[in-house]
Specification:
It contains nine helices and eight strands. With 227 residues, it is an alpha/beta fold.
Length: 227
């Protein structure tokens, strides 16, 4: 599998800055304080104008748990439809049920509604009761990738489960490591076999280096190594 770097951006300005790097994908969301929710429609439109990179949109109506009401599910469906209409490349969502498993019924509906967009199942995965069963369920549903920190606070802390998940998936689904990924720990993650990385523009583009690509390029230099 090709080594991948995805950057999470929290506004269209971040998207424009990241689009000048050799990033493979951009995830657009808002409200970093709750881990990301669906961005405003105006921001989605502007972000699409600001980059030619593959643009994936977070579909999450609120922070908190990943068990949604019928009204919230309808809102998420409308958001997916908007993303399709406005030339997004993919959507990012995660639905669970009360026993900590993938909400198969509603996820299947979302997969169908999302076609032909690509789909990432986000870090709702990290609170699944059985991560290996969850991998099987996501594969059966046709999900292309899962974003996970290995069910720990950060990908570095969860690196051993991440490696086990990569081996278990055996190429059937992309396992993308996210959660505290940066230039300093990318080598550690790469060296244990991780090849798909998700980092945050909010962390990388701080006020002191808002126009500096050094940290992003440092991650790129790690993952571009020939394995």
């Amino acid at each position: 599998m090709k080594n991948i770097l995805e950057i999470a951006c929290f506004d269209a300005t971040h998207v424009k800055q990241i689009s000048t790097t050799k990033t493979d994908r951009i995830e657009l969301c808002s409200n970093v304080n709750v881990g990301g929710v669906t961005p405003d429609y105006d921001d989605i439109i502007l972000a699409r104008k600001n980059t030619n990179l593959p643009l994936y949109i977070m579909i999450r109506p609120r922070g908190g748990n990943f068990i949604y009401s019928s009204n919230e599910l309808e809102l998420m469906k409308a958001d997916i439809a908007f993303c399709k209409k406005n030339n997004s490349n993919g959507v990012v969502f995660g639905l669970l049920n009360e026993n900590g498993n993938i909400d198969i019924e509603n996820t299947a509906k979302f997969v169908e509604i999302s076609k032909p967009l690509d789909i990432t199942f986000h870090r709702a995965f990290d609170v699944c009761s059985n991560p290996f069963k969850a991998i099987d369920d996501l594969i059966s549903l046709g999900i292309k990738r899962v974003l996970t920190s290995g069910q720990k606070a950060t990908a570095v802390e969860g690196k051993f489960l991440l490696c086990d998940l990569i081996k278990y998936a055996n190429g059937r689904i992309e396992i993308m490591a996210g959660g505290g990924v940066n230039a300093e720990n990318a080598t550690e993650l790469f060296d244990v076999g991780i090849r798909s990385f998700h980092a945050s523009a909010h962390k990388l583009l701080d006020e002191k280096m808002i126009s500096d690509e050094a940290k992003i390029n440092a991650i790129i230099n790690v993952i571009s190594r020939v394995s």
